[in-house]
User: Which sequence fits this backbone?
């Protein structure tokens, strides 16, 4: 079962991907994790990626696609995998289709206003705990008593900019996978366990 997860920032992809991979015992493959692993290992593609990142440049599609091709050829992917954060663009999706078969692309759909509320309401503590102001209005961490803070990435104006990039670059993938006949949409506005149950329902329907 080869899966792609789609969804805007804050849709809950990472949380659901972790649970799905645990349940179905398939590797959770994230572009960022692969880049870091290759850089750390000093592979040729990792060295190339590091030189670009160190100069403040984006890693081009051909490097990311090369890293993905290598990763999907590894033994733990033989019985399936879940791609999170790849493909990000139509160009990457077309390249992926040349060397991998995607069984299902699951779009975790959430209204943009809800995404802004979800992310902008997050508060972090330096001890590693995180909260949401809707559930934890206090500005103090329950665990260690330190003052909570809001990450720059979580500020409303930054979230809106990230959503705009998603709309321009990644949303076209929904049409791409719909045309391929493998798109399934799940309502990401529900409570987390309900979203997970709906995803499991989709996946079990494929067996």
Assistant:
């Amino acid at each position: 079962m080869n899966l792609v997860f789609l969804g805007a920032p804050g849709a809950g992809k990472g949380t659901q991907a972790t649970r799905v991979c645990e349940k179905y015992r398939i590797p959770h493959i994230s572009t960022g994790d692969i880049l870091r692993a290759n850089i750390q290992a000093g592979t040729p593609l990792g060295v190339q990626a590091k030189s670009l990142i160190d100069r403040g440049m984006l890693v081009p599609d051909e490097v990311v696609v090369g890293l993905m091709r290598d990763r999907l050829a590894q033994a733990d992917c033989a019985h399936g995998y879940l791609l999170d954060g790849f493909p990000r663009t139509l160009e990457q999706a077309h390249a992926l289709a040349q060397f991998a078969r995607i069984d299902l692309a699951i779009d975790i759909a959430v209204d943009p206003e809800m995404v802004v509320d979800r992310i902008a309401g997050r508060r972090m503590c330096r001890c590693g705990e995180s909260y949401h102001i809707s559930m934890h209005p206090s500005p103090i961490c329950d665990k260690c008593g330190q003052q909570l803070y809001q990450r720059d990435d979580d500020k409303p104006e930054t979230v809106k900019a990230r959503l705009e990039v998603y709309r321009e670059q990644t949303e076209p993938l929904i049409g791409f996978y719909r045309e391929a006949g493998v798109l399934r949409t799940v309502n990401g506005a529900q409570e987390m366990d309900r979203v997970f149950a709906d995803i499991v329902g989709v996946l079990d329907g494929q067996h």
Observations:
- The longest strand covers residues 104-109.
- The two ends are 9 Å apart (CA to CA).
